[in-house]
Specification:
heterodimer, A: mainly alpha, Helix Hairpins, 3 helices, elongated, B: mainly alpha, two-stranded antiparallel sheet, 20 helices, 4 strands
């Protein structure tokens, strides 16, 4: 059986984090951007659980519950804003949301 | 974990030590209950309840400033009470009191529900107070996210205005991005520090500020830990709007409702600096050799970017945002100086207090000079303000003069004390950049004053009828508040002694 070490977990979570980060910077659809933001939080959670397991402390596992709660609150507020914006503008593409300019 | 450890953990939950935060949270809930209980005709009294509750908390914190808890840590090491924590409490309550006053001016012009606004402001303020006293990364992150999520709601509060919602979306994406970056930094620190055995079998982790600082002291070149520290600091840089993380500031400041713009400009920025001082003085102090160059570059670029981009700005709210970036740059100077000059932290707080008074005075005048769509707020709105409303024009001039740092107003002393601290810390290059920035800022602040005091030239044959700018006469309460802010700005410029000895002496 194959055993994954700490390095592998941290590497995967760093890759996921980078994927989310560049997704936020490069994608044009607000909903996809929002999914990328959640991906970054999940990547942090994966690293946290791996560190917690390999360090032998429970604190990291407990912190995961806080992160999940916060992510849920953030999604609730964020989707509400996106829906309200869609009702006003009928678009969620970032290149069309540029009315705030000099 | 042994039984004694559990008992010690339970004993450390000292709820009285958090009385101000608990009172604010209870007041926030009471507001919602009042809306249910009171008849509709009495609803206009609810904001007064919010203001009264905050005034009581403010007086309470002030009277109990030197509590027995100072220097103690409570709630199992989540909270550490300190002088700076107490100063932060006073600052945040004062600021949210003034934001609620601005809301009583702006909210009745729209059809939006009112009570939830005050509720969210109170909750966010309580979270900021906890944030400034946190001693543990879990507490730190949860308090910071409470602030951020609350601010998402507030920024997009006027949900029938597409510009406000666009600002809300931009703040949401940028805020969530910075939080995620900061979280990854915290996780890396936790992973790098690992498991530390303490006295009596207690186990410590990198979440505790003290343990993380001890680890960084012992291993200053651990790659994971240094990367984590830098990620955490870039998350904080987003919150204070420092270069290169300042892109969200002008758009969000323009689109947000005016009271929320004031809240972002004062409370949110001060929370960022409270956190930055906390981190730089405690956890990341051993990384001085890495942090000083990084923060210095950031400060210089922030000052130049803020001032240069504000030069040609004609929208008043964008101007406040961009000039706010440059103020963040001056404050960063104080944070860098605090590595070598211990009293520089007090200088940062003094600057924040003068900035609070001046900014709130300016936003108070702005609240009286806008119509329903307050995202569209050009400097031309202030045309002939000195003739129509001489009082508002005078308050505006004092506020802007203080922000520009004109003697003898309080803002001048704030800058002077900050620059003396930077001089003692031998930051000569940065000091030169900051002085260039101050000279540039006089140009755009006085452009605004000029718009308010001197008639702009209009061609006689112009078919364009000068539309009367929407201006409301301040109520007695509003006049008193604005007068108090202006007088405090002038008096503090002449007699800074009590405040400086309070902030720097301690």
């Amino acid at each position: 059986m194959l055993h994954a070490g700490l390095e592998q977990y941290v590497l995967v979570s760093a890759l996921l984090f980078a994927l989310g980060f560049f997704g936020v910077l490069l994608r044009k659809n607000t909903l996809v951007i929002y999914m990328c933001l959640e991906l970054m939080l999940v990547a942090s959670t994966l690293a946290l659980v791996a560190f917690s397991r390999f360090n032998g402390t429970m604190d990291g596992n407990v912190f995961v519950f806080f992160i999940l709660t916060i992510a849920a609150a953030e999604v609730a507020v964020g989707l509400a804003i996106i829906v309200a914006l869609f009702r006003q503008r009928h678009t969620v593409q970032v290149e069309e949301l540029n009315h705030l300019k000099n | 974990m042994s039984l004694e450890l559990l008992k010690a953990a339970a004993d450390s939950n000292q709820w009285w030590a958090l009385a101000p935060e608990v009172m604010l949270a209870c007041a926030a809930l009471a507001l919602l209950v009042l809306e249910l209980v009171l008849p509709r005709a009495e609803h206009h009294k609810i904001p007064l309840f919010a203001i009264a509750a905050q005034a009581i908390v403010l007086v309470g914190v002030f009277l109990n400033f030197d509590t027995n808890w100072l220097g103690e840590s409570t709630f199992g090491g989540l909270i550490r009470h300190s002088n700076w924590g107490q100063i932060a409490r006073v600052f945040f309550v004062l600021s949210s009191l003034l934001v609620c006053f601005l809301a009583t001016v702006c909210l009745p012009r729209t059809r939006m529900p009112r009570v939830e606004f005050y509720h969210t402001v109170l909750v966010v303020t309580a979270a900021m107070m906890l944030l400034a006293q946190s001693d543990h990364f879990v507490m730190f992150f949860v308090a910071l996210e409470t602030v951020t999520v609350g601010l998402y709601i507030l920024v997009s509060y006027f949900r029938d205005n597409p510009l406000t919602l666009e600002a809300g979306l931009k703040y949401l994406v940028m805020g969530a991005l910075s939080s995620a970056i900061m979280l990854f930094g915290i996780v890396l620190l936790y992973g790098a520090v690992g498991r530390v055995e303490g006295a009596n079998g207690a186990i410590h982790t990198g979440f505790e500020f003290g343990t993380a600082a001890a680890f960084l002291q012992a291993h200053p070149d651990n790659f994971l830990a240094v990367a984590g520290a830098l990620l955490v600091l870039s998350g904080v840089a987003f919150k204070i709007g420092a270069f290169p993380f300042q892109i969200w500031v002008p758009d969000v400041y323009q689109g947000a409702p005016t009271p929320v713009t004031a809240f972002l400009a004062v409370s949110s920025k001060a929370a960022g600096f409270a956190v930055l001082l906390l981190l730089v003085r405690n956890v990341f102090a051993p990384l001085q050799s890495v942090l000083v160059p990084v923060l210095s570059l950031m400060a210089g670029a922030t000052i130049l970017f803020g001032n240069l981009s504000a030069l040609t700005q004609r929208n008043a709210k964008r101007l406040m945002g961009l000039s706010g970036i440059s103020h963040a740059g001056y404050l960063l100077l104080g944070v860098i100086a605090s590595f070598t000059v211990p009293w520089a932290g007090g200088a940062v707080w003094f600057y924040l207090f003068t900035y609070l008074l001046a900014t709130m005075a300016v936003f108070g005048v702005m609240a009286y000079c806008t119509g329903e769509n307050d995202a569209d707020h050009e400097l031309d709105t202030y045309d002939r303000l000195s003739r129509d409303r001489p009082f508002l024009a005078a308050v505006l001039a004092i506020g802007l003069g203080s922000l520009a740092g004109i003697p003898p107003l309080a803002g001048f002393l704030g800058k002077l004390i900050l620059f003396i601290a930077a001089f003692q810390a031998h930051l000569y290059t940065l000091l030169a950049v900051a002085i260039v920035g101050v000279v540039l800022s006089i140009y755009y602040y006085f452009g605004w004053i000029k718009a308010a005091f001197f008639e702009s030239w209009r061609p006689a044959f112009s078919t364009e009828t000068a539309t009367a700018a929407p201006r409301t006469t301040p109520s007695l309460f509003g006049t008193l508040t604005l007068a108090l802010l202006a007088v405090a700005t002038v008096v503090l410029g002449f007699f800074p002694g009590p405040l400086t000895s309070w902030l720097i002496g301690k």
